């Protein structure tokens, strides 16, 4: 396997609300499906081999500002994604920050109470 990371899950309270939030901020479509009796919304892959994950509503997980942080690919429009955060009901916790040759990132709080980062590679 080419990646050490295989899958990620972002816990949510309201799957429909969270799906709308991430679709709006990232200008993408998530695939809502049933996975072994649990409703999830899967982040679609840009190309074969991409690592992906899902929003998940589960009694065993709860949203948090603490703990592990997922960095989502904002593509070539990090500034636009950051602008859409508040419009979609979230909050920017850390404004766009350069990390030199590695690009830039920002940290947001989603509608569910999770701290999630958006990242764009240098030159985007």
From TrEMBL:
InterPro entries found in the cross-reference section: Anthracycline_SecMetBiosynth, Glyas_Bleomycin-R_OHBP_Dase, Glyas_Fos-R_dOase_dom, VOC_core
| Pfam families the record matches | Glyoxalase
Boundaries of every VOC domain copy:
4-121
Q: Which CDD domains match?
A: SgaA_N_like
What this protein is called in its record is VOC family protein
Q: Which source organism does the UniProt entry give?
A: Myxococcus llanfairpwllgwyngyllgogerychwyrndrobwllllantysiliogogogochensis
């Amino acid at each position: 396997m080419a990646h050490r990371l295989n899958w990620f899950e972002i816990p949510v309270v309201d799957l429909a609300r969270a799906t709308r939030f991430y679709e709006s901020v990232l200008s993408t479509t998530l695939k809502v499906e049933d996975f072994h009796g649990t409703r999830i919304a899967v982040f679609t892959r840009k190309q074969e081999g991409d690592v992906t994950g899902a929003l998940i509503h589960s009694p065993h997980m709860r949203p948090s500002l603490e703990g592990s942080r997922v960095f989502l690919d904002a593509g070539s429009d990090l500034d636009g994604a950051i602008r859409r955060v508040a419009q979609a009901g979230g909050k920017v916790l850390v404004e766009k920050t350069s990390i030199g040759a590695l690009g830039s990132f920002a940290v947001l709080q989603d509608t569910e109470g999770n701290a999630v980062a958006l990242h764009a590679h240098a030159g985007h």
